[in-house]
Amino acid sequence: xxxxxxxxxxxxxxxxxxxxxxxxxxxxxxxxxxxxxxxxxxxxxxxxxxxxxxxxxxxxxxxxxxxxxxxxxxxxxxxxxxxxxxxxxxxxxxxxxxxxxxxxxxxxxxxxxxxxxxxxxxxxxxxxxxxxxxxxxxxxxxxxxxxxxxxxxxxxxxxxxxxxxxxxxxxxxxxxxxxxxxxxxxxxxxxxxxxxxxxxxxxxxxxxxxxxxxxxxxxxxxxxxxxxxxxxxxxxxxxxxxxxxxxxxxxxxxxxxxxxxxxxxxxxxxxxxxxxxxxxxxxxxxxxxxxxxxxxxxxxxxxxxxxxxxxxxxxxxxxxxxxxxxxxxxxxxxxxxxxxxxxxxxxxxxxxxxxxxxxxxxxxxxxxxxxxxxxxxxxxxxxxxxxxxxxxxxxxxxxxxxxxxxxxxxxxxxxxxxxxxxxxxxxxxxxxxxxxxxxxxxxxxxxxxxxxxxxxxxxxxxxxxxxxxxxxxxxxxxxxxxxxxxxxxxxxxxxxxxxxxxxxxxxx
Length: 508
Description:
By secondary structure, the chain is α/β, with parallel strands linked by helices. It has 22 helices and six strands.
């Protein structure tokens, strides 16, 4: 803060200099006075357990005015504005709940659940390789020349085995890089790549068939070799940076310069061991692998290709998962099933059932969707929707302005009434039976309890009071038999009468 205050630089310049976001630096600046003494603001968060309806009304009006100016409500900024302008000190969570309850903010719940994935990285070198292309820019006299770098990386050892540079990512480059890999290290068992047109062209697939290399599909839940090739490109570009050549050379010069730089990088990278490994990638690639190990990897890759999926959860959830896999003929290896069983336990049964229906419909429309990652993708979205809806209902029960007004109206009417009577008790219990929200039911039951105790204390014979309750309850034709039984069970609990119906706890 002293650097920003005592130097004649803008907020942006100070942010870049100290490597702190501008919003963070600006909020820190507001926390100190001109003499760099911290401004102490009384914090009443957590000390007031109940939010008054007037406070809710002010927050709602302020938020609506804020939105009419086409401003996006950022929760922390809006909370600070309430403290500074409206003198309303509440936590950002409470303010967010109030806005959500009154449809001024979309419900957002964050609950960490494990993500289902299928492991592609193998245990032996040259078992599974990853191939992809990435664009590299060369700057020559201010002119940008774009070239495509096609490269293969072993997913086990992270060895950079072959590369090629061309104008575009084509099938010819795909085959050229694979041939270079095979000449240097031998034929891999499987190849994982994205769904680019060059990678899945007829020429590429024919070449893979001729070499008996299994093409392993990748998707949103199955990054190529756990991100192997993307990590390789990221490290490469970090090392070489942007290439600027100040000469009027041709594209051939740019290609030769890039070829030299990448060759140097790959040689250096292959001489450095990965974390927690003693051998370098090149040394690992030279390790002899038995035919038995290669066959084991081949079987694993075949299972993943055929459609990789897993089983279910707490016994009922496990049953649904196994039934889904069996009936829809979803193939999965042991590791994938174990991971699915672990993952599905973190989801609700309602979400699982809804996801199962949606998954079946989706697969009927398109058979390619028949996979466990697709099912868990649906499950994650459905569970998030259910969590958001539950959070919104909870906020509405506590902070919805219309419900708060209704609650205060009921309380005022009760205060203005004459001393309670038997009919008053039955009327409020009737409203409790029909109350849509739990907190309204709780308020009505609490008031009924007070009135019943008042009637008992003012009555000499409890039996006479019981007959009044029985007679008045029978005459309430607007209630059905089940509602009358609930009311009677509740009243009987205070009159110390023997009851043959359900317990009072079921009514509340």
